[in-house]
């Protein structure tokens, strides 16, 4: 088990390194003169030179890259040009908000998508299946930002059921910071009011974000279950009188879930990208919102830092998915 | 003679396909007396597997039974609902041994989990044993006993292993134990030795033969191999393109086949083939099949009447039935 | 013909094709179909933010422009971006996939590593970062999207080429002395065409969505373009009173993407026999 994790981590290193090269290349090499861009339009040549020196742009590229690698290894990405705070601190404060949102969405997508996909497969080509097929195609065709706005229009502005934006009502005191996950922190502090308030704030963003994932997971579960249903062991189990309820929800589902699991790993990248949009619309204080700000203001240290963090999370999620794979499929477990 | 354990008569079944209705089974008849082993022989695609599925009530969607009955212990299985079949026929009174033991076990659950779950639903518990825990312990003990009987080494440890950790022969032994686990009256074996190598095949056949007597069961043994039938079966039923062509005691049928198809098939068997020639012509499509004998287009003795005449069985010897125009005139001649 | 028959049976795919054809038709004849083709840049402050009426079926926006006309005119931009991006991505990605799959060595290894690297970053974030490097405009958005989309083509073509490379007919061609470009483009490429078409169709939908996001975040189309994403972004200040402002451009995105996705799914079912069975 430990060896498996270690090997996967080692395997992830080359692609992470590639990611570093790519982002470094994009933000430091491609722009003609990053110092001019950073200094702003009205900067004097002296100011530009000072910035150039401060950021190390006067050093040869390979030296800059080595320095950069050293910083990454220490998770020290320098100071944001925009907020004037250390990037790693900003990320540390904002990451839990994003994770809270993405994990909630992923759970929502998984725990709705798998049963829905299974039901569709069991009722293959009958109305539950057809309905789900239409909905799942529609689910990936909807622009998340538009869907979010329509949800706001309906549930916040028109019906006034759910808050429009933010993570916690401004009238509410935040629970003491422990994990950074508002739901967990409010429970730890025994603040039921803060917990329900956070939950209310979470509903619309999580709904928006889970939409695409839900549709994808449902589709892949459906395809997986349909494929499994044609396998010989299903016929055998039926021939041996295993009730169809048990057959489907225990024996078939566990086999089919492998396909859906792989998708969940891939989806996480999409979720993070989706968080960029969703956080912007719902003023969610996470790293997605932060990334957009950084990109819009060419805050390159933030861009580099965020990319590295996202890359690491992405790799970690995929390793986790492989691990769960192994737990589900005993043939793979021996490789663990 | 008491009523047979399994009695199928005038069974017709069709399946809806993209190209129209296909008549998969046409006037199939089959009788299995208690305590005997019946070999159901035919080429692949002749409807053997569909017939087995019909008995177990696990026909694919789109298949409809047009006529006939399947009497099992004097009860027509075709009249039972899915719930009743699942509850008191499949697994409990009819055990099943699948064709390919490599594919029949679910790869992501332990063998014990899969075999015991069948027992949990269907195996009877002795009167003294009550409570879920005690019942499961009883089932477990019985399963271990069975595994030992089918010669699986270390039967206790085996339950916690996964299917891929067994060889083909061992898996088929597991399947046999699974089929016997709930004390069935009938065991259906669907080409249980086809996927195995020859030496293993022989061992499994011997095992099956001894188990039939020991557990007081009857067996429907589906195969395409006359050699296997000769070794194992008391009776034989030959099918061709969805029709029963001949049935009777194994010795009688093998020694004196009456139907031209049986004759041709036996002549093709490698053990006794004079030449390597197959049967000329092709198996007809079950789509828009003619009403009469389906072998007629390939039959050297066919006359016009063969394709029109409704299938009908003539008895040519004790229990030896032949569905052929030629046989109808023979008793007088003989 | 069998393929056509199979396709005709797949109702969602046919519906997708119909939607796509309608969208293309609207894009071509947009200036003729739009009731107020001048509303690309005009402004009529007297009738701003009016709810839908018969004269203005989708209402009017913050500058009094007819949203119906602008949605119709926006079709052109969306399709233009999508075809350019997918086309360019194909031009970059397909040859790289052929080369990477055909040759074995550090060169092809390098191509595939770079491909994986691009695929490892969420497309949207990469596109945003790339678009930021250039001044925000439709052109830079298209370039950024192209640079994020080519690896998808490389991946499929690579896999297909690897599979075919050892096929007997390729061996035979090599023995007869056929040149490498000839083998690649005349013999291997035609075998990849069907999967490329499927990917391109799905890519059209994906690109339209992405372009809309870029427009929404202010990294793509610039005012006064009748861009759907941009319109939704502009509408945010006027919510909830002017619900029509955001709703109709969003529906336009939805139906266009839906059409391409349903068509792509249908095509994939025909091309990929394994998935076809599960339908």
Any overview of this molecule?
The complex is a heterotrimer of chains A (336), B (334) and C (279). Chain A has 336 residues and is mostly helical. Chain A is 77% helix and 0% strand. The longest helix of chain A is centred in the last third of the chain and has 39 residues, at 244-282. Chain A is globular, with a radius of gyration of 24 Å. In chain A, 42% of the residues are buried. Chain B is 35% helix and 23% strand. In chain B, helix 4 crosses helix 5, helix 5 (132-149) crosses helix 7 and helix 7 (168-180) packs parallel to helix 8. Chain B has 334 residues and is α/β, with parallel strands linked by helices. Chain B has twelve helices and twelve strands. At the A-C interface, helix 1, helix 6, helix 7, helix 9 and helix 11 of A face helix 5, helix 6, helix 9, helix 10 and helix 11 of C.
CATH architecture of the largest domain in chain A: Orthogonal Bundle
Distance between the termini of chain A: 5 Å
Look at the structure and name the CATH superfamily of the largest domain in chain A: MetI-like
The secondary-structure class of chain A comes to mainly alpha
Which oligomerization state do the chains in this entry correspond to?
A: heterotrimer
Helicity level of chain B: 25-40%
Number of helix segments of chain A?
Answer: 14
| Spatial order of strands in the largest sheet of chain B | 6-7-8-3-9-10-12-11
Summed up, the helix count of chain B is 12
State the fourth-level CATH superfamily of the largest domain in chain B: P-loop containing nucleotide triphosphate hydrolases
Query: What count of structural domains of chain A?
Result: 2
Q: Given this structure, which CATH class of the largest domain in chain B is correct?
A: Alpha Beta
* Rg of chain A, Cα atoms, Å: 24 Å
What is the ordering of alpha helices and beta strands of chain A? HHHHHHHHHHHHHH
Q: What share of residues are in beta strands of chain B?
A: 15-25%
The number of distinct β-strands of chain B equals 12
Uncertain spans of chain A, ≥5 residues at pLDDT below 50?
A: none
The unreliable regions of chain B are 330-334
**Biggest interface:** A-C, 52 and 46 residues
Average pLDDT level of chain A: 82
The SSE order of chain B reads EEEHEEHEHHHHHEHEHEEHHEEH
């Amino acid at each position: 088990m430990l060896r498996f994790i270690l090997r996967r981590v080692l395997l992830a290193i080359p692609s992470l390194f590639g990611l570093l090269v790519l982002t470094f290349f994009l933000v430091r090499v491609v722009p003609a003169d990053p110092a001019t861009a950073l200094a702003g339009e009205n900067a004097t040549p002296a100011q530009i030179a000072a910035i150039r020196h401060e950021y190390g742009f006067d050093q040869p590229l390979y030296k800059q890259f080595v320095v950069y690698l050293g910083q990454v290894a220490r998770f020290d990405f320098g100071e944001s040009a925009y907020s004037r705070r250390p990037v790693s601190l900003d990320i540390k404060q904002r990451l839990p908000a994003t994770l809270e949102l993405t994990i909630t969405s992923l759970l929502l997508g998984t725990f709705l998508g798998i049963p829905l996909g299974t039901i569709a497969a069991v009722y293959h080509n009958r109305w539950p299946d057809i309905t789900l097929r239409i909905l799942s195609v529609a689910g990936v065709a909807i622009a998340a930002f538009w869907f979010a706005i329509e949800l706001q229009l309906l549930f916040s502005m028109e019906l006034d059921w759910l808050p429009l934006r933010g993570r916690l009502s401004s009238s509410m005191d935040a629970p003491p910071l422990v994990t950074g996950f508002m739901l967990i922190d409010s429970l730890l502090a025994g603040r039921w009011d803060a917990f329900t308030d956070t939950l209310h704030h979470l509903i619309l963003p999580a709904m928006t974000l889970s939409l695409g994932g839900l549709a994808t997971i449902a589709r892949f579960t459906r395809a997986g279950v349909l494929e499994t249903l044609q396998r010989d062991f299903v016929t055998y189990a039926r021939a041996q009188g295993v009730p169809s309820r048990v057959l489907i929800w225990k024996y078939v589902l566990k086999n089919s879930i492998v396909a859906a699991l792989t998708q969940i790993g891939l989806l996480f990248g999409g979720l993070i990208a989706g968080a960029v949009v969703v956080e912007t619309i719902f003023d969610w204080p996470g790293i997605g919102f932060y990334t957009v700000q950084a990109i819009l203001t060419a805050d390159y240290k933030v861009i580099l830092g965020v990319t590295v963090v996202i890359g690491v999370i992405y790799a970690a999620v995929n390793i986790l998915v492989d691990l769960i794979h192994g737990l589900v499929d005993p043939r793979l477990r021996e490789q663990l | 003679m008491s009523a047979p354990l399994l009695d199928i008569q005038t069974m017709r079944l069709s399946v809806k396909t993209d190209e129209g209705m296909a008549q998969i089974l046409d006037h199939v008849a089959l009788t299995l007396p208690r305590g005997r082993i019946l070999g159901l022989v035919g080429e692949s695609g002749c409807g053997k597997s569909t017939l087995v599925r019909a008995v177990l009530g696990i026909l694919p969607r789109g298949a409809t039974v047009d006529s006939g009955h399947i009497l099992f212990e004097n009860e027509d299985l075709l009249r039972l609902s899915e719930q009743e079949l699942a509850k008191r026929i499949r697994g409990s009174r009819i055990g099943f041994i699948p064709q390919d033991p490599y594919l029949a076990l679910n790869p992501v659950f332990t063998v014990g989990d899969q075999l015991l779950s069948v027992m949990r639903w269907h195996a009877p518990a002795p009167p003294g044993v009550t409570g879920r825990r005690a019942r499961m312990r009883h089932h477990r003990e019985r399963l271990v006993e069975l595994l030992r009987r089918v010669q699986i080494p270390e039967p206790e440890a085996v339950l916690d292993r996964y299917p891929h950790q067994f060889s083909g022969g061992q898996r088929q032994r597991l399947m046999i134990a699974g089929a016997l686990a709930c004390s069935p009256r009938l065991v259906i074996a669907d080409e249980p030795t086809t996927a195995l190598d020859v030496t293993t095949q022989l061992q499994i056949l011997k095992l099956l033969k001894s188990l039939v007597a020991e557990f007081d069961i009857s067996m429907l043994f589906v195969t395409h191999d006359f050699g296997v039938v000769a070794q194992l079966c008391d009776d034989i039923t030959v099918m061709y393109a969805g029709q029963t062509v001949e049935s009777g005691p194994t010795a009688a049928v093998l020694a004196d086949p009456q139907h031209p198809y049986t004759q041709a098939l036996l002549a093709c068997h490698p053990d006794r083939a004079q030449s390597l020639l197959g049967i000329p012509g092709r198996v007809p499509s079950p789509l828009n099949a003619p009403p009469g004998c389906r072998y007629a287009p390939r039959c050297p003795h066919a006359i016009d009447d063969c394709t029109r005449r409704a299938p009908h069985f003539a008895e040519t010897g004790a229990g030896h039935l032949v569905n052929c125009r030629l046989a109808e005139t023979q008793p007088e001649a003989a | 013909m069998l393929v056509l028959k199979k396709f005709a049976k797949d109702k969602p795919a046919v519906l997708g094709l119909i939607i796509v054809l309608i969208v293309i038709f609207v894009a071509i004849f947009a200036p003729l179909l739009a009731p107020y083709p001048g509303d690309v840049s005009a402004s009529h402050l007297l009738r701003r933010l009016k709810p839908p009426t018969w004269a203005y079926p989708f209402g009017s926006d913050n500058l009094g422009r007819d949203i119906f006309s602008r949605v119709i005119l926006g079709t052109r931009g969306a399709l233009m971006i999508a075809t350019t991006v997918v086309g360019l991505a194909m031009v970059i990605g397909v040859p790289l996939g052929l080369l990477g799959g055909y040759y074995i060595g550090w060169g092809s290894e390098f191509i595939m590593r770079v491909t994986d690297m691009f695929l490892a970053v969420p497309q949207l974030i990469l596109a945003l970062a790339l678009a930021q490097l250039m001044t925000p405009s439709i052109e830079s958005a298209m370039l950024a999207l192209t640079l994020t989309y080519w690896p998808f083509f490389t991946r499929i073509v690579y896999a297909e080429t690897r599979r075919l490379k050892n096929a007997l007919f390729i061996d035979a061609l090599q023995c007869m002395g056929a040149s490498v470009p000839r083998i690649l483009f005349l013999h291997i490429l035609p075998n990849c065409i069907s999967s490329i078409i499927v990917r391109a169709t799905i890519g059209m939908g994906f690109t339209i969505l992405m372009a809309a996001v870029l427009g929404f975040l202010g990294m793509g189309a610039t005012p006064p373009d009748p861009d759907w994403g941009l319109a939704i972004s502009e509408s945010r200040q006027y919510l909830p009173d002017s619900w029509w402002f955001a709703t109709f451009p969003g529906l336009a995105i939805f139906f266009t993407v839906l059409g391409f996705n349903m068509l792509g799914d249908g095509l994939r079912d025909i091309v990929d026999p394994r998935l076809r069975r599960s339908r």
